[in-house]
Sequence to fold (187 residues):
Amino acid sequence: MFYETLARYYDRIFPLEATKVTFLAEEFGRVKAHSVLDVACGTGTYALALAEKGFAAWGTDLSPEMIRQAKQKAERQKLPVRFPVGDMREPGTLGIVFDGLFCIGNSLAHLLAEDELRHALAAMRETLRPGGAAVFQIVNFDRILDCGDTPLPVIERDKLRFVRIYKPVSAELLHFYSRLAVKTDDG
Fold:
């Protein structure tokens, strides 16, 4: 439910970062990638940016609302990016092998158990051609566990305020709390 609500504001909270696009394009260029998969793509921003650079891009996300928005953006931009609803633990259900794969934005942290993470990474590896490139991004959780309650930088843009805090609940588990405030025209 959280991501279905967040989808409406997602692009305003997390706008495209050109340096990430450049990094991804360079990494995929090193292995002469043509087809790339954005795992847990949100509203598809990075898959679309890579398509603009000539990659045959796909994006999957578990949230139907995120995927709906990604498809709308692809249509508006007239880009041939495919956006099926999909689980990052099972990218093989697409039936395609990709030259490159990426999972950014700390999406892997949604996998709570180590065996679940291992399964997802193995499934992603099976979806990647031999010699292909995979890029992953995560928060430094060791630092959070060492420091205790750790707020991430508050994001304030365009009448939005997004607060995120990690709280350790054990030596191996963190709870993630977030709050989105939207300022209306009437205050």
Observations:
- The chain has a mean pLDDT of 89.
- The chain is about 35% helix and 25% strand.
